[in-house]
């Protein structure tokens, strides 16, 4: 059972994970690969609004995407963008990244190799990973302005889209843990975490929402 307090704590984490940035025109939009094709849809929508002249999709495969995206997350994202009318010349693919740190590093390298001058990045992720993506990019791509974006939706809408409320809560708890431990490991910048968010996180951990936690000696972001 998921209690009323569990849901209140989940909403607290959900709100914190979202950065609240307003999209604005940037040098490039980078879509972080995952199981969620809505990242690609949002990237296309922002491209069509003139928020970036170029899209980069980054991501290999993972145990959760291998069956759904056998050609790799970034490749499937690109195919989706082309289906939605984006010209192939406006899409670059980075097909090797297997974690958020590699998403950022490999996309940065790809753009440098392509000779693209980047001063700002519209970074598109799943809604609950906005802050994690932002913190990672700020660490690994210094000197570039990072604007976080995701598909606009409520927590309830996101739970409905995934179809597994407990899994969503586990993911939110896991993302918060990474924000707490990864700065010391050099994977991302440190950010202030309000006391009420810490308290909500601790209660959810205590109540068993732990399947997406990592060991403290984890070596990948």
What would you note in describing this structure?
The chain is α/β, with parallel strands linked by helices and 221 residues long. It is 44% helix and 10% strand. It contains eight helices and five strands; from the N terminus they run αβαβαβαβαβααα. The chain has a five-stranded parallel β-sheet with strand order 3-2-1-4-5, with helices on both faces. Helix 1 packs across helix 7 and helix 1 (4-17) crosses helix 8. The mean pLDDT is 94.
Considering the chains and any ligands shown, give keywords for the structure.
alpha/beta, 44% helix, 8 helices, 221 residues, 5-stranded parallel beta sheet, 5 strands
Please describe the topology of this protein.
Blueprint: H1 4-17, E1 28-32, H2 38-48, E2 55-58, H3 73-83, E3 91-94, H4 100-113, E4 120-124, H5 130-140, E5 145-149, H6 155-162, H7 165-181, H8 195-206
Parallel strand pairs: 1-2, 1-4, 2-3, 4-5
